[in-house]
Amino acid sequence: MASIQKRNSRFRVRITRQGKSTLCATFYNRLEALQWAKQTEAQLRLGLYAEPLAPAKPHQEVSFDEAATHYMNTHSIHKKIVRSETYRLQILIKRWKDLTLKQIDKQAVLTLRDDLLGLGRSGETINHYFNTLSKLFQMVNNEWDLPIPNPIKGIKRMPPSQGRSKRADIRVERLLLSTCKKLNFHILGSMIKFAIQTGMRRGEISGLSWGDVDLVKRKIYLHQTKNGEPRQVPLSKDVISVLDGLKTMGTNEVFPMSMNVLRNQFDRVRNMAEKDWNETGVNPFADLRFHDLRHEALSRLSDAGLNVIELSYISGHKTMAMLKRYTHPSHQAICNKLDCM
Asked: Over 204-245, what HEC string results?
């Protein structure tokens, strides 16, 4: 019998079997978790379920490369974070390709942590490596029945970073848009306007289709979000104007641009804008990321007077702590509110 547990924003499915190892899988969407559970239980009843094959060798000889590759092909591929998790595992395979699983002990993980810190990686990035390794060894223990200790057990997670406070103010926005116009990156220009007005994530914007847009009721419905829960995003008049200009393209996607093209074009625009910036002080285009437009959008909405409930409704943040990391009210806006009291 399958059981589904919600852990933070994820849904973990466990199917216990008498005399055999428990089957586990993790999803970001409850519907996907239910579908996997039903499909797997049906395969078990019909005798069609293919057991994950454990290596036909003593557990002391199983290589990290072998286990990590198997995990990528059977577990990572079903996750929304497949791209980032696969990237981390490939880095670890290069690091530990000549080691067996048993040699990946607590000291090896602590050395990995110190090396990542030396490269300037954030605490959150290091925690992602820890979580990936922990899931890998859970698979080894639960599915392969190999008595290899999980090296992450007992290692304290890194404290969260302070978060970015970078804002793309109106001067930055204007130079970004004018640079897009120079380079004939019209779709990217529309995406920048859209991001600053809605606070949506890059992936949410790229995956947006016209079927998710309701111009009459002035809202966008997002089925898949980072925290696994759908949400609605209200549309300002400026956003509707941007969307009206895109409707004539006749595509199913609102922004017909692949993620790779988006990255390359934004890098070109940012680099050109950084060279064209001629004001004194810190150059705001240094290390500017597309995700900073989300920070700017939420900060502008805060400056406009929206309360935390309204901001979280738009952004999708579940906690005040996360919303605080993304919202940076301007000093002048706070002074203006004080003057109006």
From this structure: HHHCCEHHHEECCCCEEEECCCCCCCCEEEECCHHHHHHHHH
Task: Out of 81-85, 212-216, 308-312, give the one with best mean pLDDT.
Answer: 212-216
Contact between 59 and 146 under an 8 Å Cβ cutoff? The reply is yes
Q: Which of 16-30, 130-144, 296-310 has the lowest mean pLDDT?
A: 16-30
Q: Is 161 left (phi over 0), alpha (psi -120 to 50) or beta?
A: beta
Question: Mind listing the pLDDT tens digit for each residue in 230-281?
Answer: 888 889 899 999 998 888 787 889 999 888 899 999 999 999 999 999 888 8
Residues 6+ apart with CB under 8 A from 146: 54, 59, 62, 101, 140
Reported as type and span, the H/E element at residue 17 is: strand 10-17
Domains along the chain with CATH numbers: 2-142 (no CATH), 170-340 (1.10.443.10)
Q: Provide the CA 274 distance to its chain's centre, in angstroms.
A: 27
pTM confidence score: 0.64
H-helix or E-strand containing 7?
strand 2-7
Q: In the structure encoding, which two tokens stand for residue 300, read together?
A: 């502008």
Residues near 200 by beta carbon (within 8 Å), at least 6 away in sequence: 194, 208, 220, 222, 233, 294
What percent of the chain is predicted at pLDDT more than 90?
Answer: 33
Query: CA neighbours within 13 Å on the CB side: how many for 149?
Result: 11
- Helix residue ranges, H only, 162-210: 170-182, 186-198, 202-206
Q: Which whole-number Å values give the CA distances from 137 to 71, 101, 105, 132, in the listed order?
A: 10, 9, 11, 9
The residue type of 144 is W
